[in-house]
Write a structure and sequence with these properties.
The structure is a single chain. The protein is mainly alpha-helical. 28% of the residues are buried. The chain contains four helices and no strands.
Length: 90
Amino acid sequence: MMSKKTTDIVAYITWIGLIVALLVGDRQGSRFHMNQALVIWLVGSVGSFLPVIWVVTSILCFICWVMGLVYAVRGEEKEVPILGKIKLLH
């Protein structure tokens, strides 16, 4: 099993990282970052199918992804802008 910090970081590294974090990571301790990573990946994926808002969605998701990854590396549980309020994992 991965440590909480490792799980937090891995969750932001592609879809595969998120799946690995969900399967073998510290699911209880890392729920906050796994939720944020999931929301960022889902919004980015859905936004890529909508050409009108693709650019805005891509920029928003990239900024949120970088911020989330930096927070995970620092060991902080701060919400990313806009998307951080969405809770999919409880």
